[in-house]
Design brief:
Layout: E1 7-10, H1 14-24, E2 30-33, H2 39-46, E3 50-53, H3 64-68, E4 75-78, E5 95-97, H4 104-119, H5 122-130, E6 146-150, H6 154-165, E7 169-173, E8 185-187, H7 192-195, E9 201-204, H8 218-223, E10 229-232, H9 241-249, E11 255-258, E12 278-280, H10 291-308
Parallel strand pairs: 1-2, 1-3, 3-4, 4-5, 6-7, 6-9, 7-8, 9-10, 10-11, 11-12
Length: about 325
Amino acid sequence: MNSAPVVILHTDNPDPALQIATAAHPDLEIHTCDSYAALPQMIADTAAEVIYSVRFAGTPGFPRDATVNSATVRWLSVGGSGTDHLGTWDSKRLTVTNAAGVAADMMAEYTLGAMLHFSLDLPGFRRAQKERHWSAGKVEPIAGKTILIVGLGRTGQAIAQRCKALGLTVLGVRARPAPLDHVDVVQGMADLPDLWPQADFIAVCVPLLDSTSGMIDATAIKMMKRNAVLIDVSRGGVVDQKALAQALQKNALKGVALDVFETEPLPEDSPFWEMPNVIVTPHCASVYDGWDLKSVRMFCDNLTRYRRGTPLLNIVDPMRGY
């Protein structure tokens, strides 16, 4: 570790990021790169030791080898929370951190919005409004309902806090079960078959790992209540979307909100586009004005720790993916 490392900020919004970084570390040599294609050569030319990187153009084409297997890079700071685009790495040679928590509150609000969308039957009222049709209406409270949160990291805990405040029973699963504030019951992933039938709402917020890939499959969906609402803010691939589409065609669920997809952008021929009980959003539940700059500030704080030789925050275990 060098107390004055060469740093690259790899982001599609480089100027504000550079202003923040140079204000926090004015003595450092800091470079910016706003494309996937140019990053490998910049790493080679600058012999960069530290990279802050945002996956701003999706996973395909991301310069994984240049970052993970560089001869000079010792710390890779991922600007978001997911690290599945990196695969695995040698943690003895490279430290990877993420910005877990930078968008937890926003993703929790997205989840609540999806819950209320269906409980208030906003699609139905919108259709009636479009037809200028005045009919007897009814809304349904979420208080007293049960939510199952699959993954109790920063986002899952933010969802739990809000749901508990609104009077829901909160169930949750995590790899290592332990009591948590705002969660009534915490169990392990193996307990999901017992939990699916209990939930009125299901929020999916686990990372994409070998252990979570396809975990919500046809069998899991069949165990859910027919009037359940499924909200996926995790990563494309955690939910088997072919099985989900088939289940929705049989009215197996009340509604679904999908922010992540196995293929992004979502293909034009996807059945989800036309399904009236499906919300499709373009992987934006974590995108709000200023999130990227908040992430840069988190990185700069961690960079101070790095230069002092103190332990970094949010170190990712390559075997666990978080």
